[in-house]
Design a protein that fits this description.
Chain A: Belongs to the TAF6 family. Chain A: This is Transcription initiation factor TFIID subunit 6. Chain A: Keywords: Nucleus, Transcription, Transcription regulation. Chain A: Its main location: nucleus. The complex is a heterodimer of chains A (about 675) and B (about 625). Chain A has helices at about 15-25, 35-60, 70-75, 115-120, 155-160, 185-195, 220-230, 235-250, 255-275, 275-290, 300-315, 325-345, 350-365, 370-380, 385-390, 395-410, 415-440, 445-450, 455-475, 515-525, 545-555, 560-565, 635-645; strands at about 95-100, 100-105, 130-135, 535-540, 580-585, 605-610. With about 675 residues, chain A is mainly alpha-helical. In chain A, the strands form two sheets. Chain A has a three-stranded antiparallel beta sheet, with helices on one face. Chain A has a two-stranded antiparallel ribbon with strand order 1-2. In chain A, a hairpin with a 2-residue loop joins strand 1 and strand 2 (about 100-105). Chain A is elongated and about 105 Å long. Chain A starts with 15 loop residues before the first helix and ends in a 34-residue tail after the last helix. Chain B is an alpha+beta fold. Helix content of chain B is about 25%, strand content about 30%. Chain B has 19 helices and 31 strands. A four-stranded antiparallel beta sheet of chain B has the order 4-5-6-9, with no helix packed on it. Chain B starts with 10 loop residues before the first helix and ends with a strand. Classes of the chains: A mainly alpha (about 675), B alpha+beta (about 625). Chains A and B meet through helix 2, helix 3, strand 3, helix 6 and helix 23 of A and helix 6, strand 3, strand 5, strand 28 and strand 29 of B.
């Protein structure tokens, strides 16, 4: 036993120089080396003694961290006056310095001006202690509510996915407390049964991998049904809530296979039906799943990618390609694919290179229709500047010719015209910023024409604009926290500041799509069981550098139909009809006059979507039922049994898909319908 | 030499025992000679003789330090401290800092080693082997230490195995002597007084015949089935004087019986629900929690010296009106008891101010009229829950009081603290009735036996002791924990004791036989709270590792080896069945589980303060 854990007893003593320094500070100039040594030993010993006593107070105080007050109490035990003035609750900001081969830790004591202290306003009074009850377990199973930790942390999901045998090995439970028994309802149940079965081999008890992943409890089935119906239903408020739940709820991993199937099946059906609205809803579900930090999606990427890709490159996505705004869906899905690549692409699965190949292949093909062409380019462009540089720029000339032949040539088909027009603006939008970085000014129209053919002149003016924009943003980035540095529209969520001393500032520069969601989650972790969560507000922000993308933003926040319905020409900026919960607050322009020559080019819109008070996304009606905490002395445990007890064997096959979206299904999108009203 | 050194000896006299010295340079040789001998001995003896390493190491080191051979002491320590069992490392750390003769004065660990002989249990064969070796080698230095400082408890029979030894050792002063656990303990429950119960309950009572849990007793008595039968292991009813039942107590007992009929029968297939009470915004300051038996009130002790009492039922906390207002009340009216309560100041939370240091212990009286709290300031305070004021401050400990608890019958209470003693008090005496002295380090936790005749204490010396309230004697010493003990609980039938320590293990003890009967491994940090279900089927444990775990107590106590040999020698073979006994693990969100409580219907209430990382 002694070998297992070698003692690390460091016989540290203070350096004798310290004694000299202390002595000098007391006015004793000459102190003998021998005395110093004796003092050092004595002081070191006493300090250790006090530290040991202080540890006692830490243990009895039910804490993991030693605090200054523990040391004070330990000093008091020895009848020593405590050190006044050291009252750090958490940690003492020791600073470290080294030099000349010596290491030094010191406490930085700044000189404080007393008047400063007197004049500063009093800090906010900290919140008082309060009690909050929740169910940690209901008859042996832990409900997946925000007050409890996620049922299966991402690492475990990963372990289960990648090493299915390892997680089932006996004895593994000890090193991961989370893998303990009774994790989920079904797991505990399964164990009970297994235990009774005699082990197959003596000495090596064989444990089968629990089937639990494929079984859903009744509440989970209810939740699944509610969520999927809300996601594809007609009520936008409900949908926002449901998506919020998918993006933040910690206990969804057991439903993941079903969500994945729901989405891929849904896309399969609705592409055939050309139901644009449902496709958009499904893509938003994908986005929400991607945003959920507790989910290990790797296992389902193979099912999601084809669905998303379909929404990018499908020849037709809507009933009336000439008027419906399916371009927004393609853009959104393209961004999703880029996000998938960023998250999941590894050298083993080569997701990014395979996706790139697919896009390139369909783009290069002469017979590819304009819609697919648009999708392929959008998909490639979202993959980043490098991809644009190596794959798109070389083909600009060729593509320009093709566009010109459609736009300038005889009008064969209106649809082709619109398509070509969109492809052109897409290329301009994505290539200009890249070119602005690649090429040095000045930008010469002729040079551009020589290099890029017919698109040259347009490209040139866009590059000039992009440069101006970039310069402006460089100035502004420090000034305002709400500036969005990305040149393309983003959909970001950011929680309004909550009252409470622990909540950190939540409005941050949304650098990427994923960041604000993480902020949201961390905010919740810091103060999860707020007794009464304030109504959550989400600010949907957008900024755009080109006119056409303004539309896309709106289409994302109000799910496309609004803008699509009134748009006859895609380039026109339109304000969508305001839906009940969407409010157009202002059209504040942060764009300076220099970049606003082309009208609506750089308009920023802030759309505030306010959710109902229950819409924390987890406690809402669509969430798991969380039984009311007992308020009487004897809350009947039987009350909980109805909520958690019975489980239905759902088998391995996905459920009969209570809401697999169908165009003619039970949820015809009414207000969210993309059908235009000409 | 087995002269007991019971009373606190003069420090210098104690230290002077180290005066006799051999050649300091030879110490290493002596020690390694013995080490070589033990390592070369037969396997069956090696494990037993290895127990000598640690006490010899400590004493030889202390002798060197005492005789001011600092360098020799240092090299001796460096050379051999790695050989010691890892569970001694806390003590070794203390020892390593002790390098000067001057330090020895007033060092508790050192004094413990001198004042109490380290107890080793060794079979006669092994002992003979050792004795022969030491005499052959003329190794007087070691022989002296063995004679002077160790107590070797020799037994006849097979030497113990390494596992058997490891299960029992680990305390500051070795194992308990065998005779220490021989005295008779009345672990049975007292007969409950007969109370008339409304007739309509009788039908349901018939169903729950089996089992002998405490809470069921009154019911059986009331229907007269077993009222005349006395538990053979129970103490005489009047062994210690107990307070008489008041009318309100009887009412409460009737309520209890009614609740009992609705109690869920727990088992591996029927696990209890757990309701967690999280203290928010406690800023790491929650130090103690208690819940009343009827689960209506929760008290929290805090590092800011306050005690807070919450009502968790819709009934608010009301205090009695001021004297001036009371005089206006019509004392003849029927609802006078209602009228004296002040509705205006009723609230869910009452804060009790009075302590001047963190409150480490809290305990409600069984009748819910009083609350006890113990604090760093060295006092135990008695608070009235009628007026929400402090009634008495019991002084006596002078050092931090780590825990306090009311007797299950009220009136008496016990406290234990840094001064290494536990004290028994009665609420109407300002001085303690008994002082339980014997622990070698802080008394961390104290619990009354359900029959109120005994008190169990858990200590930082890694032992658990059971004390007789009647005469103040120590009747059981349980060793086996490898870290300071932080939680204790008796099984409802009074037969068993469960203890939890900083090593994350829960040990189960048979009080009657004085034996360790089980070990529950699973927690990864200090076990702060332990509680049996009302019928004793489930043991719940809460820990600093932020989990609540449920264990199958029925199975744990099922087939105990209680044959004569085991009982006589105390050599138990613990089955490695922690994983089978573990019924559930429930993680909290970074909330250490400070307190656990089973309601009368067997719902688990857990409590702790949320402490963000």
């Amino acid at each position: 036993m002694a070998e297992e854990k070698k003692l690390k007893l460091s016989n540290t003593v203070l350096p004798s120089e310290s004694m000299k320094v202390v002595a000098e500070s007391m006015g004793i100039a000459q102190i003998q080396e021998e005395t110093c040594q004796l003092l050092t030993d004595e002081v070191s010993y006493r300090i250790k003694e006090i530290a040991q006593d202080a540890l006692k107070f830490m243990h009895m105080g039910k804490r993991q961290k030693l605090t200054t007050s523990d040391i004070d109490y330990a000093l008091k035990l020895k009848n020593v006056e405590p050190l006044y003035g050291f009252h750090a609750q958490e940690f003492i900001p020791f600073r470290f310095a080294s030099g000349g081969g010596r290491e030094l830790y010191f406490y930085e004591e700044k000189e404080v001006d007393l008047s400063d202290i007197i004049n500063t306003p009093l800090p906010r009074v900290p919140l008082d202690v309060c009690l909050k009850a929740h169910w940690l377990s209901i008859e042996g199973c832990q409900p997946a509510i925000p007050e409890n930790p996620p049922p299966a942390p991402k690492e475990q999901q990963k372990a289960e996915a990648t090493e299915p045998l390892k997680s089932a090995k006996p004895g593994q439970e000890e090193d991961g407390p989370l893998k303990g028994k009774g994790q989920g309802a079904t797991q505990a149940d399964g164990k009970g049964k297994e235990k009774k079965a005699p082990p197959l081999l003596e000495g090596a008890p064989l444990r089968l991998k629990p089937r639990s992943i494929h079984e859903l409890s009744v509440e989970q089935q209810l939740y699944y049904k509610e969520i999927t119906e809300a996601c594809v239903g007609s009520c936008e408020a409900k949908r926002a809530e449901a998506l919020q739940s998918i993006a933040t709820d910690p206990g969804l991993y057991q439903m993941l296979p079903r969500f994945s199937t729901f989405i891929s099946e849904g896309v399969r059906v609705n592409v055939v039906q050309n139901n644009l609205a449902l496709l958009i809803y499904l893509m938003r579900m994908v986005k929400a799943l991607m945003d959920n930090p507790t989910l290990y999606l790797e296992k389902y990427v193979h099912e999601l990618i084809p669905a998303v890709m379909t929404c990018i490159v499908s020849r037709q996505l809507c009933l009336r390609p000439d008027v419906d705004n399916h371009w927004a869906l393609r853009d959104f899905a393209a961004r999703l694919v880029a996000q998938i690549c960023k998250h999941f692409s590894t050298t083993t699965n080569n997701i990014q290179s395979r996706i790139t190949k697919t896009f390139t292949k369909s783009w290069v093909d002469e017979k590819t229709p304009w819609t697919t062409r648009y999708g392929s380019i959008a998909g490639l462009a979202e993959l980043g500047h490098d991809v644009i540089k190596t794959l798109i720029l070389p083909r600009l000339q060729q593509e320009g010719e093709r566009i010109r032949s459609v736009l300038d040539g005889p009008v064969l088909s209106n649809i082709d015209r619109i398509g070509a027009d969109h492809v052109q603006s897409l290329l301009l939008k994505h290539c200009a910023p890249v070119l602005a970085k690649l090429r040095l000014p000045p930008d010469n129209q002729d040079a551009y024409r020589a290099e890029f053919g017919s698109l040259g002149p347009l490209l040139c003016s866009h590059v000039v604009k992009a440069r101006a924009q970039a310069a402006l943003q460089a100035q502004q980035v420090n000034r305002t926290t709400l500036t969005i540095t990305q040149p393309r529209p983003t959909l970001t969520l950011s929680q309004a500041p909550q009252p409470g001393p622990r909540t950190p500032g939540l409005l941050k520069v949304p650098g990427s799509i994923a960041l604000p969601v993480q902020t949201l989650v961390s905010a919740r972790a810091a103060a999860p069981p707020q007794p009464s969560p304030p109504p959550t507000k989400f600010i949907v922000m957008s900024s755009s550098s080109s006119a056409s993308s303004t539309q896309q933003v709106l289409s994302l926040s109000t799910s496309a139909p609004g803008s699509g319905s009134t748009t006859t020409s895609p380039v026109t900026t339109t304000v969508p009809s305001v839906q009940p919960i969407v409010k157009l607050v202002s059209t504040a322009t942060t764009a300076p006059p220099s970049t606003a020559p082309s009208g609506p080019g750089s308009v920023q819109k802030y759309i505030v979507v306010s959710l109902p008070p229950t819409g924390e996304g987890k406690g809402g009606p669509t969430s798991h039922p969380s039984p009311a905490p007992p308020t009487s002395s004897s809350p009947s445990p039987l009350g909980g049994s109805a909520l958690c007890g019975g489980k239905q064997e759902a088998g391995d096959s996905p459920p009969p898909a209570p809401g697999t979206p169908k165009a003619n299904g039970s949820q015809p999108p009414s207000s969210g319908s993309p059908q235009p009203a000409p | 030499g087995s002269v007991a050194v019971e009373d606190q000896p003069d420090v210098s006299a104690v230290l002077s025992a180290y005066n006799q010295q051999g050649d300091p340079t030879m110490y290493e040789e002596y020690y390694s000679g013995l080490k070589h001998f033990i390592e070369c001995s037969l396997d069956c003896h090696r494990a037993e003789l290895s127990q000598l390493f640690y006490p010899l190491f400590v004493h030889m080191y202390l002798e060197l330090v005492y005789n001011q051979h600092e360098n020799e002491a240092k090299s001796f320590f460096e050379k051999f401290h790695g050989d010691q069992e890892c569970y001694y490392q806390d003590d070794l750390r203390v020892l390593s800092s002790l390098t000067k003769k001057e330090h020895m004065k007033g060092n508790e660990t050192m004094l413990d080693f001198r004042t109490s002989k380290f107890v080793l249990r060794i079979s006669r064969d092994s002992y003979q082997l050792l004795k022969r070796h030491l005499q052959e080698k003329q190794n007087n230095q070691i022989w002296n230490i063995v004679q002077e400082h160790l107590y070797i408890d020799i037994f006849d029979g097979m030497p113990r195995s390494k596992q058997q030894i490891d299960a029992m050792v680990g305390s500051l002063a070795g194992e308990a002597k065998r005779e220490a656990n021989k005295s008779k303990v009345f672990f049975g429950l007292l007969k409950e007084p007969e109370i008339e119960v409304p007739l309509d309950d009788e039908d349901e009572e018939g169903e729950n015949e089996e089992g002998k849990p405490k809470k069921k007793k009154p019911k059986k008595d009331s229907i007269g089935s077993k009222s005349k039968k006395q538990d053979p292991n129970a103490p005489p009813q009047n062994r210690i004087p107990l307070p008489e039942l008041k009318d309100s107590d009887k009412l409460d007992k009737i309520m209890n019986m009614k609740e009992t009929t609705k109690r869920v029968r727990l088992g591996p297939d029927c696990l209890p629900s757990i309701c967690f009470y999280t203290f928010l915004n406690a800023y790491q300051g929650l130090t103690a929690v208690d819940v009343t038996d009827d689960s209506s009130l929760i008290a929290g002790g805090f590092a800011d010296s306050t005690v807070r009492v919450w009502s968790v039922t819709p009934k608010k906390l009301r205090s009695v009106k001021q004297a001036s207002d009371l005089s206006l009340i019509d004392k003849e009216s029927d609802d006078v008891l209602e009228r004296i309560m002040d509705e205006k100041t009723a609230s869910e939370l009452k804060i009790l101010y009075g302590h001047s240091g963190p409150v480490y212990g809290a305990s409600f009286s069984p009748d819910r009229n009083y609350l006890l709290s113990s604090s760093e300031d060295g006092t135990v305070r008695l608070w009235s829950l009628q007026t929400f004021t402090c009634l008495v401050g019991y002084k006596g400990h002078n050092y931090p009081v780590w825990d306090t608890q009311f007797s299950p019958y009220g009136y008496y209470f016990v406290s234990g603290g840094h001064d290494r003693v536990a004290r028994l008090w009665a609420t109407d005496h300002y001085q303690p009735l008994r002082i339980f002295a014997g622990h070698l380090a802080d008394v961390n936790c104290t619990r009354f036996h359900p029959n109120s005749n005994y008190v169990a204490t858990g200590s930082a010396d890694r032992t658990v002791r059971l004390w007789d309230v009647l005469n103040g004697n120590c009747v059981r010493i349980f060793t086996g924990h490898k870290g300071p003990i932080h939680s204790l609980t008796f099984s409802p039938n009074g037969r068993f004791l469960a203890t939890g320590a900083t090593d994350g293990r829960v040990l189960l003890w048979d009080i009657g036989h004085g034996l360790m009967v089980g070990e529950l491994k699973g927690h990864t940090d200090t076990v702060c709270s332990l509680r049996f279900s009302r019928d004793g089927e489930i043991l719940a444990s809460g820990s600093m590792d932020n989990t609540v775990r449920l264990w199958d107590a029925v199975k744990a106590f099922e087939d105990l080896e209680t044959d004569d040999f085991t009982t006589a020698t105390g050599h138990i073979n613990l089955p490695e069945n922690s994983q089978e006994l573990l019924l559930g693990t429930y993680m909290t969100k970074s909330t250490p589980v400070v307190h656990l409580h089973f309601t009368r219907r067997n719902l688990v209430l857990a409590a702790g303060a949320y402490s963000p990382q």
